[in-house]
Design a protein that fits this description.
The complex is a heterodimer of chains A (286) and B (256). Chain A is of the alpha/beta class and 286 residues long. Chain A is built from seven helices and twelve strands. In chain A, 27% of the residues lie in helices and 17% in strands. The chains are: A alpha/beta (286), B alpha/beta (256).
Chain lengths: 286, 256
């Protein structure tokens, strides 16, 4: 045993967080206030997600962390190591082997199952925040289902850009009731939110937890004549050739050379292991 | 004829200070009522109580709703009252900044009420917004500009367009021409008069400017220290004031 209580947080705190999670699951999309603790990391680095993971993990769990889809970025590596140290749980980079996946800004490409929990890190849980700065007012708007203002944002997008230019943190309506911020995932991922896994959202600085039970209806807001479009870069992955995955644009030299690769590193590696080759690797082989 | 709005014994005090006391009147469809009085006479308090922005201490505000007929708005649930606030009612603030979203384009400002009542077709919303900008004499080319780039008079006209787009039946106006210079005031009044006649609006206009009520209001209510001291037809009250305070008010107007 190490010097930490299991998964860092004390049992009372975990209990308080679990209560908030249960309430969140009972009222999908509703932001449940909780007494967010200080974590040994700065706000904005996933303190909300880490607290949910800490309250969710059991010693038998296998834990995976992704940051923008990647398993090997600073944020992902340090949070993974944090729970290796404080909870001594198994960690993995393989999506299908993980039981709890903490994510920042992406949903894994591989469909999740009913045995998995997806934990999101949320910077600003209030979808109406930049339209209505008063928390008292936004709470009232949620309570009374006054969501006309959300469409004002989309209207502004179309009037300025000719199309809905919001490309991440695209607002969704849950079970025809609450409008929810899906955290800054690309809108490409929005349709995936109607999934088999439990989804938990934690905002540490803002002290809010919200949740989606499995198979909850998640509708992206749009206009009749400007329907929701889960767009992505019109390319296929340069490494694995995938046409259906969300892509990162990588600048490769000073001459404007660029390539598009899967943002989900596990998905890309798995495809390459299965023998798929994208344009960049095909040239190397030739 | 059922009055559109029947106000009965509305009272509101701030601790020991009286905001307005025991105000009653009826407002019929298509009628414009002016409320005048000096600063602190309780006219804005009265308007806020009627529009549901402030909670009145006592009294009834019975509005003739489209579906259920006459109903006391003070006893309505908050969702019901707020729904009324975006459909049948409109509130024009003295300062356009209070009534507009300054960070949202003119078209978005006008479209907000439409979207709030369920409009979900961008083309229709925009067409209606442009139509309304035209009606309040704002050029179509300004539809995507923010109100921060508008002059004071334009902001006030935009606020009026934003309020009238859902075809309300009752408009509350709190000093709609306050803070505007006289030529702009005159055009705004002209515009308001046209809209009130065309749409057969009922309105309650609070102002300290007697010229405004002379032009717009059918009936007049004079307030002092929270009490109504005189009511009557506008011309009658202004030309033949009975109460000492009304006489003072009328004689205080500068004759140019």
């Amino acid at each position: 045993m190490n010097d930490y209580n299991f998964a860092y947080l004390d049992e009372q705190t975990k209990r308080m967080i679990r209560r908030a999670i249960l309430k969140g699951l009972a009222i999908p999309g509703y932001q449940v206030p909780f007494a967010s603790r200080e974590m040994p990391m700065p706000y904005g680095w996933g303190t909300g997600g880490v607290q949910i993971s800490a309250a969710t993990l059991t010693p038998e769990d296998t834990f995976k962390v992704i940051d923008q889809g990647a398993d090997d970025t600073t944020n992902a590596v340090s949070i993974r190591q944090f729970f290796e140290k404080t909870a001594e749980v198994e960690t993995t980079t393989t999506t299908s082997e993980a039981t709890v996946i903490q994510t920042r800004h992406r949903i894994p490409e591989e469909p999740l199952t009913e045995d998995q929990i997806l934990v999101y890190q949320v910077p600003i849980p209030e979808p109406l925040r930049f339209l209505e700065p008063r928390e008292t007012e936004t709470r009232k708007m949620h309570a009374l289902e006054e969501y006309g203002l959300m469409h004002v944002k989309l209207y502004e997008d179309i009037s300025q850009h000719g199309h809905i230019a919001t490309s991440y943190a695209y607002p969704v309506r849950i079970e025809g009731r609450y409008v929810m911020d899906p955290s800054p995932i690309p809108k490409f991922d929005n349709p995936k939110m109607e999934m088999a896994a439990i989804q938990l959202f934690g905002a540490g600085r803002e002290q809010r937890i919200y949740a989606l039970p499995p198979y909850t209806s998640v509708v992206s807001l749009d206009f009749d004549d400007h329907p929701f479009d889960p767009s992505k870069a019109p390319h296929c992955c340069a490494l694995c050739g995938a046409e259906d995955s969300y892509l990162d644009e990588v600048i490769v030299d000073d001459e404007g050379g660029r390539m598009f690769v899967c943002s989900d590193t596990d998905y890309c590696e798995r495809r390459r292991a299965a023998g798929h080759r994208g344009a960049a690797l095909a040239e190397d082989a030739a | 004829m059922t009055p559109l709005l029947a106000v009965r014994n509305i009272s509101k005090s701030y601790g020991s200070i009286i905001g307005c006391a025991d105000v009653s009147f009826d407002l019929y469809p298509g009628e414009v009522m002016g409320v005048v009085g000096e600063s602190g006479s309780g006219k804005s308090t009265l308007l806020s109580c009627l529009a549901g922005h402030l909670e009145a201490d006592a009294g009834e505000v019975i509005f003739d709703t489209r579906v259920d007929g006459p109903k006391d708005t003070l006893k309505m649930s908050e969702p019901e009252r707020r729904m009324l606030g975006r459909t049948d009612w409109a509130f024009v603030h003295q300062s356009a900044r209070d009534g507009l979203r300054m960070g949202v384009s003119a078209g978005g400002n006008v479209g907000e009420r439409l979207m709030a009542v369920g409009a979900r077709h961008y083309g229709d919303i925009r067409a209606k917004a442009i139509d309304w900008l035209g009606r309040v004499e704002i050029s179509e080319t300004r539809v995507d500009d923010r109100p921060t780039t508008f002059s004071g008079g334009m902001q006030q006209r935009l606020q009026i367009a934003r309020n009238l787009v859902t075809g309300p039946r009752l408009v509350f106006m709190d000093e709609p021409t306050g803070g505007l210079d006289v030529s702009v005031q005159a055009r705004l009044l002209d515009l308001l008069r046209g809209l009130v006649r065309d749409m057969n609006l009922s309105a309650i206009i609070v102002t300290h400017d007697l010229a405004v009520v002379r032009l717009l209001a059918d009936r007049l209510m004079v307030m002092k220290d929270g009490h109504v001291v005189e009511t009557g037809l506008t011309d009658q009250v202004l030309d033949d004031p009975q109460h000492a305070y009304t006489q003072l008010l009328v004689s205080s107007v500068l004759q140019v």
